[in-house]
Amino acid sequence: MRTTTTRVAACQLAPAIADLPANAEVSAAAARAAISEGADVVVLPELVTSGYVFTSREEARTVAVTPEHGVFAAWAAACTAREGAVVVGGFCELGDDDLLYNSAAVVDASGVRAVYRKAHLWDREKLVFTPGSAAPPVVDTAHGRIAVMVCYDLEFPEWTRTAALAGADLIAVPTNWPLVPRPDGERVPEVVIAMAAARVNHVAIACADRSGTERGVDWNEGTSVVSSDGWVVSEVGTGTGVAWADLDLTASRDKRLTEHAHLMNDRRPDLYRAVSPAS
């Protein structure tokens, strides 16, 4: 890693449903703006190139793209403005198998470094997308090892633990969290989950949510950056905006809690088989 401090920007945007050209420009502009303001890692929302609330698989197909699409070249071009810059963002992927995936790409100045397909599909996503079948990639970058997962994936502790065991310093989470009731003064429930996942794995997590209303769905607007200690260090709140955080990602590599307590070494996989046979 070049430095011990990495500037993370989690961008809360409002993509338009089924408008690929507009969303491509909005996402690229957000990446350019964040990098011009010093971001080393930019995280964009889930399905930022397409919008989320599709009426059918056929509608989603009209805005599905491959990793060779020009939107990723635009993200890569944005990265050239700052050495080592990385953009992680969601997109509606048309696979080589002609199936649709809710995916996220990790991009730097060299182009697309990795593509992840959401493994845990939420609700009506199952009517549009095929679930991914691979673990979150952990990509070596100039700023450390970045893992990527999408939205609902975060709610499965096995998945965040998988990324942590693979050496992730930062988990980037493009997301679209629908608004749900919560008591006054409480955080978005998915942010609470991110805080817990960060703390039990001692790994930083950056969640880029979306804003606005799409076909009657209101969004939680929960964009947040969580430190490896499990505390929210930056958030956006209502509307579009950016959560900024300067993180020492090397801190994620120290899993010691005390002289005699270690988050990974103290695991007992032999006792967990009833929960996860492959743990």
UniProtKB/TrEMBL annotation:
PANTHER family: BETA-UREIDOPROPIONASE, NITRILASE C965.09-RELATED
GO biological process terms on file: putrescine biosynthetic process from arginine
Protein name according to UniProt: Hydrolase
Pfam families for this protein: CN_hydrolase (PF00795)
Keywords of the record: Hydrolase, Signal
The keyword Signal is assigned to this record: yes
Range of residues in the leader sequence: 1-24
Keyword Hydrolase applies: yes
Family: Belongs to the carbon-nitrogen hydrolase superfamily. NIT1/NIT2 family.
Source organism of the structure: Quadrisphaera setariae
Residues in CN hydrolase domain copies: 6-249
Listed Gene3D superfamilies: Carbon-nitrogen hydrolase (3.60.110.10)
SUPFAM superfamilies xrefs: Carbon-nitrogen hydrolase
GO molecular function, one term: N-carbamoylputrescine amidase activity
Coiled coil: none
InterPro entries reported in the protein's UniProt record: Aliph_Amidase/BUP, C-N_Hydrolase, C-N_Hydrolase_sf, UPF0012_CS
